Amino acid sequence: MDGRDTDLKKELDATLQTRRELGEEYESALVDSFLEKVDQRIDSAVERRVRRQVAEQQMVAARDSRSPRSTDSFGERFGFGIVSLVLAVPLSAIGGGVADLPGLLVAWAGIVGVNVVQAARTTPGLFTRRRAGKDDAWED
Fold first, then answer.
1. I want to staple 72 with a disulfide (CB 3.0 to 4.6 A). Which of 28, 76, 117, 119 is the partner?
2. Structure pTM?
């Protein structure tokens, strides 16, 4: 039993004692007074819970707004892929012409690297693995 429950119990005891002293003619007024105090307690408890939930929602919203989001549209991603492939042809020719197979491999490693960085930038969490098991919200 916490402090609020003991306070409410004291209020009830005082109301009952007052009813005994004053008689039945004041009973409805005493009950109304006690119920008003109970209503105030309930209202304050609900208000605290609502404030706490609103604060939690604001914190979640603030965290989400700070996290990186994909701002690129499909057209931008598609365009990046097309430009990457178009530039791959001359880069492959230059790399293969200058340094044969190693030059060709370096050119394609650069092309793949640029595309991986673009994919990671536009899709946060793309390369992170989800852990199964205890993080699953459906399991108890």
1. 76
2. 0.41
